[in-house]
Description:
Order of helices and strands: HHHHEEEEEEEEEEHEHH
Number of domains: 2
Largest sheet: 6 strands, mixed
Amino acid sequence: MKRTxxxxxxxxxxxxxxxxxxxxxxxxxxxxxxxxxxxxxxYVAIPxxxxxEAILIYTVVKYRNNDDPQPTRENRRLEITWTITTAIILxxxxxxxxxxxxxxYISLVPDAAPGSQSQPQAQQQVxxxxxMNQSGATAPPEENAVEVxxxxxxxxxxxxxxxxxxxSSGVLTVPNGTDxxxxxxxxxxxxxxxxxxxxxxxxxxxxxxxxxxxxxxxPGTYQLYCAEYCGSGHSGMLANMTVMPEGEYxxxxxxxxxxxxxxxxxxxxxxxxxTSSNSSAIGAVSAKPA
Length: 290
């Protein structure tokens, strides 16, 4: 009996500690929504886990010496109770997940399906200065939103700012507290842009755009990865995502514009990227018709 009590006490302590731990402050709206959803589901999962394990331990200990086990009798009240309880739990999980997954910061719906008649108009709204004239992008409804093309290639990244006509190799720079639309695509094979600390992940597919909407809430520099195996140089396909205050971001834009529109590739070089190949890729991508 003492062992049973100790086991139950241990389970309760673990549960309380899990609930009491505060998550790290999110650096973007995307990350905050994902973290809040995970935390809400954890609050549901922990009591269920503790209850099931407690019943299991109690049953094992109590009937460990039973040499003549008898079949359980039907208990309709119990069956109805756990069926309704399970339905309520599943309903909560489904609704909580739907609210998050349906949010534009998590699942942004394209303006029009590729190949539809309304797609050219939607594509035109994105901007005529994009480097890759493709379908699938989502035009921002916000007037002050920032648009960036994230163009993946083996094995590096080119970030193009259509409004300012700026190319950046290896460093994705965005303003803090502003909606940012990142139109991801690829020039060769399937890649995936992934910034774990900001809760961003999206496939980069040749011939189409996939748009991510985000709003960073904490200035800083965050690691950007390719999350889809794309060949022998996959592990070195890294970059930095730098979040700047609005004033510093505007000053950065002005500096890049005055210097000819090509930002330094220092972020990717520091992460193990190839600076010369990135620079040549910018020229090759820029040569494509818009």
